[in-house]
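Standup notes
- DV: blocked on the single-chain target, sequence here:
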Amino acid sequence: MKYDFDEIVPREGTDSMKLKYVKDICGRDDVLPMWVADMNFRTPPFVVKAIEKRANQGVLGYTCTHDRYYDSICRWSKEHYGMEITNENVNYIPGVVAGILLAVQVFTEKNDKILIQQPVYHPFRIVPEATGRKVVMSPLRRVGSSFEMDFEQLRKDIEGCKMMILCNPHNPAGICWSKEDLQTVAQICAEEGVLVISDEIHCDMVLHGRKHIPFATVSEDARMNSITLQAPSKVFNMPGVVAAQAIVFNPDIREKYFGYIWGTDQDAGNVFAYDCVAACYSEEGDEWRREMLAYVEENIDLLCARLAEECPQITPIKPEASFLVFLDCRKLMEEKGMKEQSELVRFFADKAHLAFNSGDMFGSLGKGYMRMNIACPRSVVNEAINLMVEAVKQ
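- DV (later): unblocked, structure below
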């Protein structure tokens, strides 16, 4: 490999969130932090170079979008997903979660119902609730240790809703939804007049030869009744830069949404944002991405193989996308006599000295699960597995 993903990158002294707040989530700080969804790899050199080049100009003034920014997004979308977009379809947003908030503010009113499919990324619930909307928690269906869409339940729950927030690919289970699944969602939402906000931040993290299917490409209903939110921040490990994009094909939705973004001054990225996006969506960026994915795939294979052999009480859902792994710990809870999720969290913190995300933060169906960040050097993955195995044996 051209890049060294085995390197241990110290996070102490960098104001790292995963270190600063680890005690808040598990009650102690003498743990291996594998919770926050950023990588423990060094940010790619072409991103750092883009920042240095801009900073060396000596002026950190107001900075606007440029052709390289739009061209890189349009080219990347066509080459990787077969989704053809033009500059007018794209708008900068200050993060995917912010993009969800802006959509909620534009297209819904207080007390309107917004549907999410739990277990799912927790801001899907937090953002609507914080703005006075009512969240409808439509459950996915458990299949073994993983999940699938329950369309019969979805048809019941979607009635009266104004918006659905879709996670594609899914976080935390790492599912790449099939074209047929997405087509059914599009049909149901179109029939009910429900706007779909498709969070596709993990679209560039598809694994083991799979291909991401953008929601907007599966049907005309999907194309004309959706807002797609993407960002290079996860896959290129630069969430601190805050750079994301919204893609909208329907001109009426685009006029309302982009107009609100412009009118509330949310379209102005920081001075480094546009250059970093253009650097990521390049040939050099794709080379780094491919090497990183190959490394993460080996980490996932290692985790699954070792736990199956040494600790079958914990069953990972092998992700089809993302560097996050949802660990099914229901057998472990049964064996250890745990009744509450809090006991599972305490087990990992106090016995295994590991900081993972508690599964119930993603919804009630997350009880019995923990989420683990696998984007780290292999030595750290092995250390974490050793800690889990030893804790279970004790």
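- Follow-up: DSSP finds 15 helices and 15 strands in the chain.
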